[in-house]
User: Fold this.
Amino acid sequence: MDEIRIEDLKIYAYHGVYAEENEKGQDFYVNATLYTDTREAGKQDALSLSSDYGEICHMINDFLKLHTFSLIETMAEKTAEQLLQRFPLIQALDLEIRKPQAPIGLPFSSVSVKIHRGWHRVYVAVGSNMGDRQAFIGKAVQSIRKQECIKNVRESELIETKPYGEVRDQEDFLNGMLEFDTLFEPKELLAFLHEIENEAGRERKLHWGPRTLDLDIIFYDDLVLDTEELVIPHADMHNRDFVLKPLCELAPYKRHPLFHKTAGQLLQGLK
Assistant:
């Protein structure tokens, strides 16, 4: 990935824990490395095919002058979020905010916070077998599309399937797959999806039981994560045709990071 770099952008702004900092202000310095593809812009000599670093600098300046935050951690987080949302060609960034006049009371050169943030490609399985199944799924997709930290949402067709697991005495499911890019970290995404499930009246009383709405993270980039609350890739996805079929509709060549097989190969193996 190519880089656009901005070094020591000086901004006089009003941020800090102490009231004096918010009243008098001080100098902050911003360093940014923006990860993007500059090839087409370079070949065609067209600014429209690149991210305008002048516009980016003014956006950072205006944003940090307009808002007041107590922590430079928050300054960095919110600025990174704004850059990634407003400049679609930026896939990821490193952002550092330095505070050379921090009220420490000891000799020092500068203090800073540096973060890396970017877009992540996610696949989420959707399902419902209670009430108006299509309406529950439709409303969930609408909520996902409205979220500012999500973009490029794609939907598979919905398929009707028999219940899976130990509880077979229940209605058939509607199942599908979503693909989108997100700024959420895995646990943040899980919390967001749980909020949507709760709004649909989801109750977790019976494992494998009926549900108004089910939203499962299948893939998050090529991340392998195994915690008590979240496992990625989904631990049982390779055994579920109602996951693999809609996944193959969207991304048949998406490769499982542990099995090293594509979605299409996993589905063929299941058959």
